[in-house]
Design a protein that fits this description.
- The chain is α+β, with helices and mostly antiparallel strands.
- The strands form two sheets. The chain has a five-stranded antiparallel β-sheet, with no helix packed on it.
- The termini are far apart.
Length: 212
């Protein structure tokens, strides 16, 4: 074999070896795509009925009802005005991790609202009107027999999620109070009797048992 032929054979062999080596070093498709250390959270979109804004804890939250009439609580950085109560909203939210202040900075999972806008549509649950609240109190046998006036003394505000309803009778120059009720409209509609001296509540059944 001539020197020229030996040179050609050596060159071809070297090229083949380098090709095999390159194939071995080529990364797979999954290896070639860099993985983000902080992947973006998945955004969910739902239609929800706004019920209440809660601003008394470390994290603000909004309470909604979904189409199945289940309560949905979403952490938020924005307040929804009470005038939108019972309106439908298009809500975008994602799963988040929050820090519990004062508890060794322990972490917990929560759903955080990222965007919301009011939309047209019929509420999933019919709003409970103030007239219904007053009428339900008037219809209580104890009120019918002992009071001639039923008025709303306080409305939900400043973290209170109930109506305070006062009942009693008017004299010529005085008002004799019969009792006061707290009426909750969510998560369930509920009437309780306020024991003002102790700032505690009794169910209607407990109250009636005490008076019989």
């Amino acid at each position: 074999m001539t020197r020229f032929n030996l040179f050609i054979a050596s060159a071809l062999l070297l090229a083949a070896c380098n090709g095999d080596k390159a194939k071995q070093q080529t990364p797979t498709g999954s290896q070639a795509i860099p993985v983000s250390p902080n992947p973006k959270p998945q955004i969910h979109t739902d239609t929800l009925q706004f019920i209440h804004f809660e601003g008394n804890f470390d994290y603000w939250s909004c309470i909604f009802l979904n189409s199945s009439k289940d309560t949905v609580t979403l952490v938020t950085d924005s307040m929804i005005n009470e005038k939108f109560k019972n309106r439908l909203f298009e809500v975008k939210w994602f799963k988040d991790t929050l820090v519990q202040a004062g508890d060794n900075d322990s972490k917990f999972a929560a759903n955080r609202m990222s965007h919301f806008r009011p939309i047209k549509g019929k509420p999933f649950v019919a709003p409970i009107t103030e007239e219904k609240i007053l009428q339900d109190i008037r219809d209580l046998p104890e009120v019918q027999s002992g009071a001639d006036q039923v008025v709303i003394a306080e409305r939900p505000a400043d973290g209170k999620n109930y109506y305070l309803v006062e009942t009693g009778t008017h004299g010529e120059d005085n008002f004799s109070r019969l009792c006061m009720f707290r009426v909750y409209t969510y998560p369930i509609y509920k009437i309780t009797v306020l024991v003002a001296a102790e700032n505690t509540e009794l169910s209607l059944e407990q109250w009636r048992n005490l008076n019989h």
